[in-house]
Write a structure and sequence with these properties.
Blueprint lengths: L9 E4 L10 E7 L12 H7 L11 E2 L6 E2 L2 H7 L8 E5 L2 E8 L13 E8 L4 H14 L2 E2 L6 E7 L2 E7 L6 H5 L8 H20 L4 E2 L8 E3 L5 E3 L6 E2 L8 E2 L3 E3 L5 H6 L1 E2 L1 H17 L15 H10 L1 H7 L10 H14 L10 H14 L8 H11 L2 H8 L2 H5 L7 E3 L7
Parallel strand pairs: 4-9
Antiparallel strand pairs: 1-2, 3-8, 5-6, 6-7, 7-10, 9-10, 11-14, 12-13, 15-17, 16-18
Helix pairs in contact: 5-7, 5-11, 7-10, 8-9, 8-10, 9-10, 10-11
Bound molecules: adenosine-5'-triphosphate (ATP).
Adenosine-5'-triphosphate binds next to strand 5, strand 6 and strand 7.
Catalytic activity: L-seryl-[protein] + ATP = O-phospho-L-seryl-[protein] + ADP + H(+); L-threonyl-[protein] + ATP = O-phospho-L-threonyl-[protein] + ADP + H(+)
EC number: 2.7.11.1
Pfam families: PK_Tyr_Ser-Thr
C-alpha cells in the first residue's frame, strides 16, 4: 500500500484470509487531496455491501467513499500542542492517545482551546504490527458508519509517523468506569453501554460480507457525553469468510481473557468468536471483575473458567454480581444476565447466539428491570460478603471488584506464527 504526504492511495482489499489484519491487493488506486479524501467504491466496500442486504441495519451504512481528512505531522503537532504529556488521554498496546483541537467545520488543526476536541492516536511506527493496525483502522473505520462505531476523522502517515484522528469520547472507555476506584459504576449505565456495544457488533456481523472485529473488550468500548457506547480500535478487524467457508484462519492475536477457545486453539476465526468476547465483557459487567487477572488465586485467573459453573444455576448467579451495585437490578435481571452470558461463552461457536439476538435480549433485560428501593443498597453490600459461597470469600471479603479497580489493564498477545487450517 503506497501513501505519500499529499496524496493517499487506497488499494483494494483482497479475499486472502491467510495474513494478518486487513489485506490488500493491488488493483485500483485512488488519490485524495489533503482536504477530504475522495476514493471510488473499492473491493472492500463491495465486499461488505454487495447487494444491499443488512447494510443499513441499526441505522449504519457503508459509505460510498471514505471521507477522511489527511493531516501532515506538523498539523497534528499543532493540534496536540506538540504531544504534550499532560494532554495524553491514554495508552494502548500500539501507541499513545492525545487530546487535540481542530476546527469543527474544516477539520483543520487549531490552537489548543479553540474549535473542537479530538483524540489523536500516535502509533508506535517501529512495529510492523503498528502499521498493520493503522492500515486496518483507516480502511474499516473509513468505510463504515454507525452510531455505535467511533468516528474516524482523519489520519497522517509521514515518514515513520502513523497517526489517527478520532471524534473525542469524553467519558473515556468502559474499562475505566468498571474498574475505577471509588463509587461502583451504576447498573443502568452498564446495561445501556452493553446494548450500544452489542448494536455496533450486530451491525458488523450483519453486513453482506461480515466484519469480524476480533478485539472486543471493555477498553475498546468508548463513551460519549451521554454514555452512548461506540466501538473503537479496528486494528485487528478482519473481513469474514467468503460464502463457501465458515471461518477465516489467521494469526492468533488479541487480549488475554477475551479470545474465544476455538480461536486460541486453532486460529479459526468466526463472527461467533466476537460473541464469545462479548460474553466475557457481560461477565465483567456483572461481576466488576477483570476477564483475566494472574494475581487471583489458582483457578480464578480466568473469569470465565472460574465463574462459568455459577452461571448455569440461576440461584447462584446473584452471588457473582458486583456487590457494589446490589439493589440496582432485580433478581430476574441477574438470572437473565446469567443466561445470555452463558450462551455467549458456549465452548462451541455454533451454540452461541447471533449479536442481533443478544441485542434483543439485552433490550428486554433493560425493560424488565424494576427495583423497588435503591436506598437499601448499602445494607445489602455490608451483608453480602457473609452470605457468599466459599470461593467468593476471598474475592468479596477483600472487596474483589474494588481491588480489581486498582489493577493494570489486560495484556495483549500476538503469536507471530501463522496457523494453517
Ligand atoms: N476517541 C477517543 N476519545 C477519548 N479517549 C480515547 C479515544 N480513543 C482512545 N482513548 C483513550 O485512550 C486509551 C488507549 O486507547 P487505545 O485504543 O490506544 O488502547 P486500548 O484499547 O486501551 O488498548 P489496546 O491497544 O490493548 O487495544 C483508551 O483506553 C481511552 O481511555
Amino acid at each position: 500500500m503506497d501513501f505519500d504526504k499529499e496524496n493517499v492511495i487506497f488499494k483494494n482489499v483482497s479475499t486472502n484470509n491467510h495474513s494478518n489484519g486487513t489485506e490488500f491487493s493491488s488493483s485500483t488506486t485512488t488519490t485524495a487531496a489533503t482536504t477530504n479524501t475522495s476514493v471510488g467504491q473499492s473491493q472492500f466496500s463491495e465486499a461488505v455491501s454487495e447487494s444491499s442486504g443488512g447494510v443499513m441495519s441499526y441505522s449504519g451504512q457503508i459509505l460510498p467513499s471514505p471521507n477522511l481528512k489527511v493531516y501532515s505531522f506538523a498539523d497534528l503537532k499543532t493540534a496536540t500542542n506538540n504531544f504534550k504529556p499532560d494532554s495524553m488521554l491514554g495508552q494502548g498496546g500500539f501507541g499513545k492517545v492525545y487530546r487535540g483541537w481542530i476546527d469543527s467545520k474544516t477539520l483543520a488543526p487549531s490552537k489548543v482551546g479553540s474549535g473542537m476536541i479530538v483524540a489523536v492516536k500516535r502509533l508506535n511506527s517501529e512495529s510492523v504490527q503498528g502499521f498493520a493496525e493503522w492500515r486496518s483502522e483507516v480502511n474499516f473505520l473509513g468505510m463504515l458508519s454507525h452510531p455505535n462505531l467511533v468516528k474516524l476523522l482523519g489520519f497522517c502517515r509521514e515518514d515513520k509517523e502513523l497517526l489517527l484522528v478520532y471524534e473525542f469520547m469524553p467519558k473515556g472507555c468502559l474499562e475505566n468506569h468498571l474498574f475505577r476506584r471509588g463509587e461502583p459504576f451504576p447498573w443502568d449505565l452498564r446495561i445501556k453501554i452493553l446494548i450500544g456495544a452489542a448494536r455496533g457488533l450486530a451491525f458488523l456481523h450483519g453486513l453482506q460480507r461480515e466484519v469480524i472485529y476480533r478485539d472486543f473488550k471493555a477498553s475498546n468500548i468508548l463513551l460519549d457525553s451521554n454514555y452512548d457506547a461506540k466501538i473503537s480500535d479496528f486494528g485487528l478487524a478482519k473481513l469474514g469468510p467468503s460464502q463457501e467457508k465458515s471461518h477465516v484462519t489467521t494469526r492468533i492475536m488479541g487480549t488475554y481473557g477475551y479470545a474465544a477457545p476455538e480461536y486460541m486453539a486453532t486460529g479459526h476465526l468466526y463472527v461467533k468468536s466476537d460473541v464469545y468476547a462479548f460474553g466475557v465483557v457481560l461477565l465483567e459487567v456483572m461481576t466488576g471483575l477483570r476477564a483475566h487477572n494472574p494475581k487471583r488465586p489458582n483457578g480464578q485467573e480466568s473469569l470465565v473458567d472460574w465463574l462459568r459453573p455459577d452461571l448455569v444455576n440461576k440461584h447462584r448467579v446473584k452471588h457473582i454480581m458486583d456487590k457494589g451495585i446490589i439493589g440496582q437490578y432485580s433478581s430476574k435481571v441477574a438470572a437473565e444476565m446469567g443466561r445470555i452470558t452463558l450462551s455467549c461463552i458456549e465452548p462451541d461457536p455454533k451454540h452461541r447466539p447471533h449479536m442481533k439476538e443478544v441485542v434483543d435480549v439485552l433490550e428486554h433485560i433493560q425493560r424488565i428491570n424494576v427495583v423497588p428501593d435503591r436506598s437499601s443498597t448499602k445494607s445489602h453490600v455490608a451483608s453480602s460478603s457473609r452470605s457468599s459461597p466459599l470461593h467468593y470469600q476471598y474475592a468479596y471479603k477483600a472487596g474483589a471488584a474494588g481491588a480489581e479497580r486498582r489493577r493494570a489493564s489486560p495484556r495483549r498477545f500476538g503469536v507471530e506464527k501463522e496457523l494453517v487450517a
